[in-house]
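Give me structure tokens for this 258-residue protein.
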Amino acid sequence: MSDWKIKTIRRVKLSKPILIEGMPGIGNVGKIAADLIVDQLKANKLVSFLSYCLPNSVFVNEDNLVELPKIELFHKKKNNKDFLFLVGDVQPMKERDSYAFANVVIDYAEKHKCKEIITLGGIGLQEPPSKPKVYCTGNDKKFIEEFVKLGASNKLYGVVGPIMGISGLLLGLSKDKGIRAVSLLAETYGHPMHIGLRGAKELMKMLEKKYKLGIDMKKVEKDIKGFEKEMKPKAIQHELLEQEKLRELSPKDTSYIG
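Here you go.
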């Protein structure tokens, strides 16, 4: 399995934290939602993860400089609860590497007595949805029901393909550790170059209903057009890295990739 280097940037005392993951996938829905939340809440970086299994590439940023792919963990305390946000530019590309990284994250969560994990992602449709619907699945029926009561649908069987990547593995691996976990999946257009801002907005609404994070949804709506211009160049770079995964899925299927 892959070796992961964990660099601790800041140490904080955590009390039964809630982990929210949002990394690249269909429409980058989960990544966009998590990145916007981290930015709005001004969350503090705790940990960075590095492994030689990550893509052998660099991203060109808005300053026309290059930077290595990043996977990072941020922290914010809200309403006397500790929240951890796992965000990144990429996911491990191979199955063994995905399992290795998911276990690193689960070990960190278990060490700090994490009680809940929420993973974020998108469901790719053949047409852009006018109002993206949010679906919910997970490893604990009672936890799923908490989100169903807030408006999510738990009727996923036969609607989506497998939940791949870190978003799926965190659900499966956390069960044996006694950590309840769900995945929130928002509908989005399945075109490779589509940026799922509307779906990301629905995920943020759901998290705000549940956890009262203090997300300014009016500001999110106002910033959507500008954020789309900002995301487009990086989305193209992300897509080049994700194409191999997407080729494995039938274009006729409604599917999800973590």
